[in-house]
């Protein structure tokens, strides 16, 4: 148990409380650092709550329990409903709040733009992005759900190739089959059963032919082949392990195709669309080949797929926060640094916010390894003294500015660590008061959404 006397001087702000943020917070708290975790949502479950489709019940519950046990620590203040870049300006946080280090663990929440010229005019009509689609799927049963309501259409095209795109195409097929089974056959099967047993087995069980449902299958279009899909990570980087992982990925995809009855269209990239009366009706694809590991379009080799719904699942990028620097779609890091953010002495990044990809284990591991490095190299006593001098100089020059150039003797106005600490506590307490936050556990209990599986049990 950490005692008050064991506190380290640094006060650290973490932006985002999910997989990587909670891992960092726990490590820091257990090492005697005081931490504030700012989270834009009510609850700190990130992609676990809003990204993984809700049939991952055990995985979700396990991860949520783990995040809760990490964040519910006396050295951690959890500040929900507070988006950095919106409720609090990032530069204000970095310069005025008194944190001697900031760790960005804000994940990747902005869908990568679909690279088809002018396709954006169909957004939230015929074009849907993965993040909002899965958010709808996971939350539409909640009594207070007020987001967009999507209706899944026949012939949906999903573009992508990662784990997430498989989840998306599964959602599409499960939604279509569930609806048509009820309409055409009066059979009501819940989505958890369809997902677990597979659509093929359920149709067999009820003696229904797929054709009777009058569903036109969804297509998953990928620019590479099934073997290239990152469905299985190699155990190490040896040629044999990589080859084994590629074969497993292909096998897994075939299993999915058999269970969920969608089409797979490999080696194709989107290049255009056809519209009719302002509605998207067809997508144009170009065939490609893989040359030396690179995707190479084949000249004059195009084909069309009729569709009323395109779901883009080509990856997420970090949402830009004003005050930080970005290079293309990634957060700009210091040269060769794997965690140190460009332009700042004391700002770091971990998890999807910097990797832009990966799974839960990888994000957790990245959070852990980087936090240990940050702690060893940057959260030292000397680093704190340097930061304190810098912080006091900033305050001095600000006071001088405010006094309109009048030269004043303000060396006595040095801010001491205890008053910095008190200011952080006052500011976070006032947010807590405003939103009615008492303890972490109470807050979680008050705000945990109702689960679909609980509704179905009733
Ligand atoms: C559809 C889908 C399916 C997936 N399936 C799997 C799977 O089956 N298995 C697996 O292992 N992995 C899966 N993953 C990947 C996994 O979910 C991520 O790798 C992991 O959750 C990343 O953790 P993170 O903490 O870096 O980011 P996130 O989980 O994205 O957490 C970031 C947190 O920061 C908060 N935040 C963001 N911006 C701000 C801000 N400005 N201010 C304050 N707070 C902010 C967010 O609300 C969130 O809580 C899947 C991902 C998706 C999208």
UniProtKB/TrEMBL annotation:
The protein's superkingdom reads Bacteria
- Matches recorded under InterPro entries: FAD/NAD-bd_sf (IPR036188)
Q: What is this protein called?
A: NADPH-dependent glutamate synthase beta chain
Q: Which organism is it from?
A: Lutibacter flavus
């Amino acid at each position: 148990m950490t005692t008050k006397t064991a506190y380290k001087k640094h006060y650290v702000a973490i932006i985002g409380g999910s997989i990587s943020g909670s891992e960092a917070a726990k490590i820091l708290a257990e090492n005697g650092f005081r931490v504030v975790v700012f989270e834009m949502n009510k609850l700190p479950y990130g992609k676990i709550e809003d990204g993984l489709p809700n049939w991952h019940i055990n995985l979700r519950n396990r991860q949520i329990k783990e995040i809760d046990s990490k964040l519910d620590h006396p050295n951690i203040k959890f500040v929900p409903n507070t988006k950095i870049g919106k409720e609090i300006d990032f530069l204000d946080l970095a310069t005025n709040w008194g944190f001697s280090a900031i760790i960005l663990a804000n994940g990747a929440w902005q869908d990568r733009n679909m690279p088809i010229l002018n396709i954006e005019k169909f957004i939230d009509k015929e074009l849907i992005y993965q993040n909002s689609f899965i958010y709808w799927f996971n939350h539409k049963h909640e009594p207070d759900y007020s987001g967009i309501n999507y209706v899944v259409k026949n012939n949906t095209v999903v573009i992508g190739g990662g784990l997430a795109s498989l989840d998306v195409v599964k959602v599409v097929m499960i939604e279509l089959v569930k609806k048509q089974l009820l309409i055409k056959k009066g059979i009501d099967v819940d989505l958890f059963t369809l997902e677990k047993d597979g659509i093929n087995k359920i149709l067999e069980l009820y003696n229904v032919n797929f054709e009777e449902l009058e569903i036109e299958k969804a297509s998953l279009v990928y620019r590479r082949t099934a073997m290239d899909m990152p469905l299985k990570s190699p155990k190490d980087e040896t040629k044999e392990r990589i080859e084994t992982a590629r074969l497993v990925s292909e096998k897994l995809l075939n299993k999915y195709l058999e269970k969920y009855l969608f089409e797979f269209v490999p080696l194709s990239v989107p290049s255009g669309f056809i519209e009719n009366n302002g509605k998207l009706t067809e997508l144009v694809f170009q065939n490609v080949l893989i040359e030396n590991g690179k995707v190479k379009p084949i000249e004059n080799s195009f084909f069309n797929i009729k569709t009323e719904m395109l779901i883009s699942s080509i990856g997420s990028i970090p949402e830009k926060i004003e005050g930080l620097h970005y290079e293309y779609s990634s957060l700009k890091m210091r040269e060769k640094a794997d965690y140190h953010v460009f332009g700042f002495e004391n700002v770091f990044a971990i998890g999807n916010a910097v990797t832009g990809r990966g799974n839960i284990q990888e994000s957790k591991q990245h959070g852990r390894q980087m936090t240990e490095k940050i702690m060893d190299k940057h959260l030292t006593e000397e680093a704190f003294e340097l930061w304190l001098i810098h912080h006091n100089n900033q305050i001095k020059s600000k006071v001088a500015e405010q006094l309109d150039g009048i030269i004043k003797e303000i060396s006595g106005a040095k801010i001491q660590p205890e008053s910095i600490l008190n200011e952080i506590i006052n500011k976070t307490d006032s947010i807590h008061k405003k939103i009615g936050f008492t303890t972490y556990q109470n807050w979680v209990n008050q705000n945990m959404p109702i689960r679909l599986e609980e509704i179905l049990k009733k």
